[in-house]
Amino acid sequence: MLRIVIADDELPIREWLNYCLKDKNTKLKIVGIASDGLQAQELAVQEKPDVVIMDIRMPKMDGITAMKNIKKVLPQTEFVILTNYADFSYAKQAITCGAKEYILKSELRSSELIEILVKIEEERYTQYDRPRIADQLERAAQKTLTEHSGEHIDTNNQFIEKALMYIHEHFDKTISLADVAGQVYRSPEYFSRLFKEVTGENFSIYLINYRLTQARKLLINTDFKITDIAYRVGYQNPSYFSRLYKKYMGITPEDERRKNSLKAK
């Protein structure tokens, strides 16, 4: 479960974020709401959240300063930065300072925000140890497999092959690490480790790369609108899709299509 602090000096934004996230997803829990940067810093130190959703420009202390101060005490806390168009260059500075994502307020959608938070949760599975009981379950499962060393590799490969088939058939829908782990009857923690061991990639990164590879094929070979392509590869927010495409493919979807259109002439 992600523990979240919301920090924004605009009451309507705070209320909207709280409404969108509270009780909408069992993996998300709001542990504090702040109306200025100083309060956000104090709340974060007190509550030790996994994620802080924070506006860049706030009274008493700006978002970047608050983020830097919180990072010194809680280096594992992730930040999702909210900004207006006028703050765009400021947002880039926030990313440089360690923010996980930034969202323009004019394009803020609950589906995009939840998608970002779910992605953060999935990545944390691969980065940090989980509770002792989960570790014990993993060790027990590993022991059972290693007792049959000749079958160990084949068994692992079979699990992951089935998982990959599920991903390839359902990448256009909202799927999570827990969903795929359930398909092979493994705990998310154990499956995450096994997936990385066999494929060499984290689950979330593999899913992103697979979706974007399929998107590239559609950009090059079809006339579908970029908005439609985003939906077809599993992203409900086209602007989020475009940012991901630029981040991982090194080029915007529009430029990808334009570049390949020129090659075809």
From TrEMBL:
Response regulatory domain location: 3-120
Domain HTH araC/xylS-type: start-end pairs: 161-259
Modified residues (4-aspartylphosphate): D55
Gene3D superfamilies from the UniProt entry: 3.40.50.2300, Homeodomain-like
PROSITE patterns in the record: HTH_ARAC_FAMILY_1, HTH_ARAC_FAMILY_2, RESPONSE_REGULATORY
Residues that span the membrane, as ranges: none
Pfam families: HTH_18 (PF12833), Response_reg (PF00072)
Gene Ontology MF term list: DNA-binding transcription factor activity; sequence-specific DNA binding
Biological process terms in GO annotation: phosphorelay signal transduction system
SUPFAM superfamilies: CheY-like, Homeodomain-like
Keyword Transcription regulation assigned: yes
Organism domain of life: Bacteria
Keyword terms of this UniProt record: DNA-binding, Phosphoprotein, Transcription, Transcription regulation
Role description: May play the central regulatory role in sporulation. It may be an element of the effector pathway responsible for the activation of sporulation genes in response to nutritional stress. Spo0A may act in concert with spo0H (a sigma factor) to control the expression of some genes that are critical to the sporulation process.
Alphabetical list of PANTHER family matching this protein: ARAC-FAMILY TRANSCRIPTIONAL REGULATOR, HTH-TYPE TRANSCRIPTIONAL REGULATOR EXSA
Protein name: Stage 0 sporulation protein A homolog
